[in-house]
């Protein structure tokens, strides 16, 4: 099962290597060094590495096979359970794949600034590709400082999931729209045993648990990662309000009590997920969860909505991320690689079919509007968010996810009570991030 781009946002990735078996599949076709596209009848092999598995890997294989409509003599080999470490090792050893698919958008700054992923703009210019087909927020997390070294293949959008029965039992009939309502509803839907231990948590505020990652939370509080000068800007009222909200809920449960409860919960992508087991009433998660619930917990009656915001005018905002595709440095068949990337990025039939198969959000405007897209009531929440202009992409820096880890670790210390001066602590995190970026030289 695909994990973040899922938020995973767990550092996972994929790679595609193409090996030409006919002349012309990877030759340079102009002085700038751009590789020519393979001829329609050329024979070449595409070996695909990805971190997909099971049902999702099968659906991605179907999408890859659709490339044969343009190149019928292409041979497709799809191998799952690959990651960014293997891509990096391949580049360093001089034996990289020709195309890399990564779920880890946190790394786009490193990929682009280091040259690990080649600049795709020359190909885009040559082929007159219209990037306006891609929503702005999605475009933002596939490039770094004007260097477009990657393209998107579907994307994820995050919102609120709520258990209808647990809310109804507490006398709640609508989803919360503000963080004040979320706090109230979380307290009202929490159930404790006679000894005070938590049986059902209305909402889990623990940072870095499940999809509780700083980039996913930040848009709902209007929190920005950098100021006008480009430096880290976490020591702001918006970040402070976000962390205060989480701390108030942690204090309601009691940090140690909450940790004991959390320790007994299932893994994020297992059938024992806390929401599947009805041990939490509300959570933040991506659209892909609708498919997991249908498959793993069909008896859970749930609804979806935009995540609550601290200010009413922010309601309808959210976070987006997704799979990125690039041509690694040293790829032997960049021409064929770019053709595959272009196909997966813009072929509407392929995008819609894959979106229906793994329940991710289409990454082009045409596919979002396609009538063949399967949209039920709960999935519609995320489609509507994707069509809005309020989404924010992943914060991109040349230090990978170090900035995210820095604020995530600080939030954990804050929630546990180890940090007492919030603003001073946030200033320290800003300095830590700025220092790391400065040391990167990029």
TrEMBL record:
<dbReference type="InterPro" id="IPR006059">
    <property type="entry name" value="SBP"/>
</dbReference>
<dbReference type="GO" id="GO:0055052">
    <property type="term" value="C:ATP-binding cassette (ABC) transporter complex, substrate-binding subunit-containing"/>
</dbReference>
<dbReference type="GO" id="GO:1901982">
    <property type="term" value="F:maltose binding"/>
</dbReference>
<keyword id="KW-0732">Signal</keyword>
<feature type="signal peptide">
    <location>
        <begin position="1"/>
        <end position="22"/>
    </location>
</feature>
<keyword id="KW-0813">Transport</keyword>
<dbReference type="GO" id="GO:0015768">
    <property type="term" value="P:maltose transport"/>
</dbReference>
<comment type="similarity">
    <text>Belongs to the bacterial solute-binding protein 1 family.</text>
</comment>
<dbReference type="GO" id="GO:0042956">
    <property type="term" value="P:maltodextrin transmembrane transport"/>
</dbReference>
<keyword id="KW-0762">Sugar transport</keyword>
<keyword id="KW-0449">Lipoprotein</keyword>
<protein>
    <submittedName>
        <fullName>ABC-type sugar transporter, substrate binding lipoprotein</fullName>
    </submittedName>
</protein>
<dbReference type="Pfam" id="PF13416">
    <property type="entry name" value="SBP_bac_8"/>
</dbReference>
């Amino acid at each position: 099962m695909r994990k973040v781009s899922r938020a995973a946002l767990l550092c996972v990735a994929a790679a595609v290597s193409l090996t030409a078996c006919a002349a012309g599949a990877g030759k340079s076709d102009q002085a700038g060094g751009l590789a020519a596209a393979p001829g329609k009848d050329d024979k070449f092999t595409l070996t695909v590495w990805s971190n997909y598995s099971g049902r999702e890997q099968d659906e991605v294989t179907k999408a890859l096979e659709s490339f044969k409509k343009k190149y019928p003599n292409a041979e497709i080999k799809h191998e799952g359970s690959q990651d960014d470490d293997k891509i990096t090792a391949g580049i360093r050893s001089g034996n990289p794949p020709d195309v890399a698919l990564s779920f880890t958008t946190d790394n786009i700054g490193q990929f682009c600034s280091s040259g690990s992923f080649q600049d795709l703009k020359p190909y885009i210019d040559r082929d007159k590709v219209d990037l306006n087909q891609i929503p702005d927020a999605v475009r933002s997390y596939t490039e770094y400082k004007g260097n477009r070294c990657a393209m998107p293949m579907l994307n994820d959008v995050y919102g609120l999931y709520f258990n209808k029965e647990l809310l109804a039992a507490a006398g709640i009939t609508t989803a919360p729209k503000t963080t004040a309502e979320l706090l109230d509803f979380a307290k009202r839907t929490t159930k404790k045993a006679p000894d005070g231990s938590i049986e059902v948590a209305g909402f889990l505020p623990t940072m870095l648990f499940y999809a509780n990652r700083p980039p996913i939370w930040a848009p709902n509080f209007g929190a920005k990662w950098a100021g006008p000068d480009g430096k880290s800007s976490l020591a702001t009222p918006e970040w402070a309000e976000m962390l205060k909200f989480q701390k108030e809920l942690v204090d309601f449960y009691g940090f140690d009590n909450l940790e004991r409860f959390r320790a007994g919960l299932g893994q994020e992508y297992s059938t024992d997920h806390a929401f599947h087991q009805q041990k939490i009433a509300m959570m933040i998660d991506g659209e892909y969860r609708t498919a997991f619930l249908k498959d793993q917990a069909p008896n859970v009656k749930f609804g979806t909505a935009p995540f609550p915001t601290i200010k009413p005018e922010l309601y309808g905002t959210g976070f987006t991320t997704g799979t990125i595709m690039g041509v690694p440095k040293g790829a032997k068949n960049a021409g064929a690689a770019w053709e595959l990337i272009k196909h997966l990025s813009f072929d509407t039939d392929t995008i819609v079919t894959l979106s229906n198969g793994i329940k991710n959000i289409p990454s082009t405007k045409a596919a979002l509007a396609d009538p063949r897209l399967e949209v039920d009531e709960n999935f519609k929440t995320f489609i509507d968010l994707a069509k809005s202009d309020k989404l924010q992409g992943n914060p991109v820096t040349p230090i990978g996810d170090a900035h995210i880890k820095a604020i995530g670790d600080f939030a954990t210390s804050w929630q546990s009570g180890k940090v007492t001066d919030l603003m001073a602590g946030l200033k320290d995190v800003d300095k830590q991030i700025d220092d790391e970026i400065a040391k990167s030289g990029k």
